[in-house]
Amino acid sequence: MPDNQERFKNVLKQNGLKVTTQRISILEALESRPDKHLTAEEIYECVKENSPDIGLATVYRTIQLLAELNLIDKLNLGDGYVRYEIGHSGANEDSTHHHHHLICLNCGSVLTFQGDLLEALEERIQNALEFEVVDHEVKLFGYCKECREARIEKHNNTNC
Amino acid sequence: MPDNQERFKNVLKQNGLKVTTQRISILEALESRPDKHLTAEEIYECVKENSPDIGLATVYRTIQLLAELNLIDKLNLGDGYVRYEIGHSGANEDSTHHHHHLICLNCGSVLTFQGDLLEALEERIQNALEFEVVDHEVKLFGYCKECREARIEKHNNTNC
DNA sequence: TTGGGTGCAAAGGCTTTGCATGTGA
DNA sequence: TCACATGCAAAGCCTTTGCACCCAA
Predict the structure, then answer these.
(1) Of A109, A113, B75, B84, which has the highest C-beta tally within 10 A?
(2) Residues of A with CB below 8 A from B152's CB?
(3) What is d(CA B94, CA B90) in angstroms, rounded to the nearest whole number?
(4) What is the pTM of this model?
């Protein structure tokens, strides 16, 4: 999406930051793999294909920057890596209510789903606990279609 | 709760594991601070008061064990530490639907709340995406009562 | 020109692991 | 007794930082 890239360049300029080839490459890498939830290392490997000289430290610095600019979202699956993805909602929409994640406990794949059924809950909390909710994160753990089918198959074959 | 401790000892024995003073101490430390979401280091400091010779490695090994035995829950607030707390639901209840967390973005305090408004959502996902949900994790980020009041006060004083 | 950006390597910080010693059953 | 558990220190691993060089503006 060149739109997104133009927006990125503008955001950088507006913040007095420079538009460098590395920054563009990293954004492109993330854009080319939507819903992929890449780790810093994966982004690094991906970017190196086109920019072999890039350093891992630059990747870390840039994703931190992108996250601060709300251009990408951080995601922690609890596996020791911090992951990143292009912001689904975009900076123009209400960024506080976005998508959530379905994490397969077997293969580790991550699906996303839209939907915001938490507003009622948040309102209740706001009233009951006087806690002002500004963001939320929902992770659902389970088994994806593929793994379920494989498991059923295995079950039929081995009976365990 | 001596009940919990008895249960713990039984669980250990049933799994062919030994009941050691270190393991008991660590469980006690976690029990004495419900809703506190301690890091390994904090547990270590806490246990050292009564067992000065304990090693940090033992704490790590034990909390890992306790988590595997479902006696404690892991919690990741995204601040670089893994935290642990005594399982609220206990092993006798339905352990898949427990409590959730309210994390203050200002002071870092963590409140918990019960309630499970996600069942409808999970059912919908189960049907639509053929993803079998077995557990979920909900984190709400915002500002606790104390910080809100402090913020309002500051606002009134400094006008910013 | 020039101050922010980058690459490389070293350092940080949390967690795990190897190994000899200790200890519950 | 003896296999499991512990303590200590070293190693692992992801991430950040220091510093000299580079380059977008």
Answers:
(1) B84
(2) none
(3) 8
(4) 0.84
- Given A95, A124, A142, which residue is the final one in a domain? A95
Residue span of the structural domain in which B69 resides: 1-95
Whether residue B26 contacts residue B62, with contact meaning beta carbons closer than 8 Å, is answered with: yes
Contact B30, B38 (CB under 8 A): yes
Which residues of chain B are within 8 Å of residue A113 when distances are taken between CB atoms? 125, 129
- Total number of domains constituting chain A: 2
Assess whether B80 (CB) lies less than 7 A from strand C: yes
The domain that holds B69 is classified in CATH as 1.10.10.10
Nearest CB neighbour to B102, from listed A104, A129, A142:
A129
B83's enclosing H/E stretch is: strand B82-86
Task: Determine the 3-state secondary structure of B135 from DSSP.
Answer: strand
Same domain, A102 and A132: yes
A66 touches strand D (CB under 7 A): no
Distance A71 CA to C7 C1' (A): 25
Regarding whether A47 and A125 lie in a shared domain, the answer is no
Strand nucleotide closest to residue B59 (CA to C1'): D6
- For residues A160 and A94, give the distance between their C-alpha atoms in angstroms, rounded to a whole number: 47
Distance from CA of A118 to the nearest CA of B (A): 8
Structural domain ending residue among the three candidates B52, B71, B95: B95
Tens of pLDDT, residue by residue, chain B (160 residues): 567 788 999 999 999 999 999 999 999 999 988 768 899 999 999 999 888 999 999 999 999 999 999 999 898 888 889 999 987 654 444 444 567 889 888 888 888 887 766 777 788 888 888 899 988 888 888 999 999 988 776 666 654 3
> Taking CB atoms and an 8 Å limit, are B145 and A130 in contact across chains?
yes
Residues of chain A in contact with residue B136, where contact means CB-CB under 8 angstroms, are 138-141
Length of chain A, please? 160
